Amino acid sequence: MDTAAEVLLIVVSSVLSIFLIVGIVALVYVVKILKQIKLITDRAENVAESMESAADTFKKTATPIAILKLVGNIVDQASRVRKKKG
């Protein structure tokens, strides 16, 4: 081989090796970041499910509470009317 070809081969091999090492390191960091993102999305999903469950519970209890409040108001009004008449 010619001297220039050998130098070119060494330079290209070195650059390729450095690029390969940098690529592997970058890939490791990307995998770590993706794992963190997955954990965050799992936690967010759990919070959303929890909030949905709390909203359903509130919706189920809100209607009976409103009815009881309405009945209480009617009873109060009726008792006030009786006090005024009697």
Describe the structure.
It is a single chain. The protein has 86 residues and is mainly α. The protein has one domain (1-61). It has one helix and no strands. It is rod-shaped, with a radius of gyration of 37 Å. The N and C termini lie far apart (122 Å).
Give the helices and strands, then pairings.
Blueprint: H1 3-85
What features would you highlight for this structure?
86 residues; rod-shaped; mainly alpha
- Percent strand: under 5%
Q: Class by helix and strand content?
A: mainly alpha
Count of extended strands: 0
Range of helix content: over 70%
Order of helices and strands: H
| Overall shape | rod-shaped
What Rg is obtained from the alpha carbons, in whole angstroms? Answer: 37 Å
Number of helices: 1
How many structurally independent domains?
A: 1
Low-confidence regions: none
Measure the end-to-end span. 122 Å
